[in-house]
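Predict structure. Chain length: 465.
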Amino acid sequence: MSKNKMTGRMWQLLFAVLFAGFVACEDKQDPVNDKPKPDTLVVEKDTFQVPALEKLVFYEINLRSFGPGCNLKEVEKQLDSIQALGANVIWLMPIYPIGEINRVGELGSPYSVKDYTDVNPEFGTLNDLKSLVKAAHKKNIAVVLDWVANHTAWDNPWISNTDWYTQDANGNIISPPGTNWADVADLNYNNAQMRLEMIKAMKFWIVQANIDGFRCDAADFVPYSFWRQAIDSLNKMGKKLILLAEGARTDHYSAGFQLTYAWDYYGKLLSIFGKNESASNLFTTHTAEYNSVPAGKHKLRFITNHDEYAWTASPVTQYGGKEGSLAAFVVTAFMSKVPLIYAGQEMAVPNTIPFFSVYPLNWDMNYAIKMQYRQIMQIRKAMHVSEKNMLPLTPDSKVIAFKLVDPAGIKDSSLLVFVNCRNVQVSYPVPADVPHAVKNLLTGSTEELPAQLSLKPFEYKLYAY
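Prediction complete.
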């Protein structure tokens, strides 16, 4: 064999060895370095665009009541029904594995998080969540997760880092001060490393499941500086997010949240329907509540939510019956830029709905009420209520009456809303300066408003002019 031929053969062998080594390196999985890194991965792109803030309608889901499946796949099956209610944001209560140490209730609280980057097998898998988000986006529905930043379960792996948690004088980790939440351990936001891990965990869901934001639990318990740090970091990912703070602190807005809870509105509505307070006082509360809201931000308004439905009473009890709860929702749907529907209220479920145990809802219950919810929300969407200017009509102790004025003054684009807040028939004096030739939005007929509008117990009327 000549020297030239031997040299060529040697080059062939060398190339083969190098190629084999390259393939072996490519196939080998490094369990640490190959794990997804939320800080470096690119968010999955799709054509979905998060709706404008003032056009959001939230639908909150307690998976343990979302029967019959009570899991993520069940939510995906019912997307059409959710969309029919006019909702374009699904808020999933915590989907993470639940702690077992000091567990409360039959199955534990979803707000006792054992692992921030996993899905509770009770509800499904990460792939189930991805499938739900993808299907929801195709229907122009956003999906936000409930985020529990104030505390963890006692058996969360983070607990080994004791300085990540609040401690007493003896160095013992404690539950959140001022609460009876014995199933969770309070996090220490003076620890910079813990903060970074919390932000990394939030990014995980944006990257891995393409979710559209967070409803942040007990936001008032967590310092402003962290929320500002976290939201600034999330915004750098380049994805438009929906950020709702369960709290009343005004600094949540400057931290980057677009929405906070309308607790004052909720309390006033309860007093009007449940304690016979004057209906006209709701407008005073509405104005006062928005005085502290910066331009371009909003309040999330509701007649109930998972805490109220579980621990206080059902809307049926709080507002004087099925029709009363419906009347309260009509006020909220048309007076609010961003309303919330909690799964179950649209059927006027009369009893409390737990979330420490499984309680599948019967979607055929009070079907007529559910159809009225759909009609109300269809009218709200068709009339572009979020774009109107709300102006109270003549104050009344029993009737909430206001108009929603179209800025362009287009015929049949402005609305009149009348809601009887009492379980008795009442008469409301229609102001003389209100157009009396109107279109009844509930029946489609053209009508002439009388000088005295008669309203049956808890009746509501919606007109266009």
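Summary: The mean pLDDT is 92.
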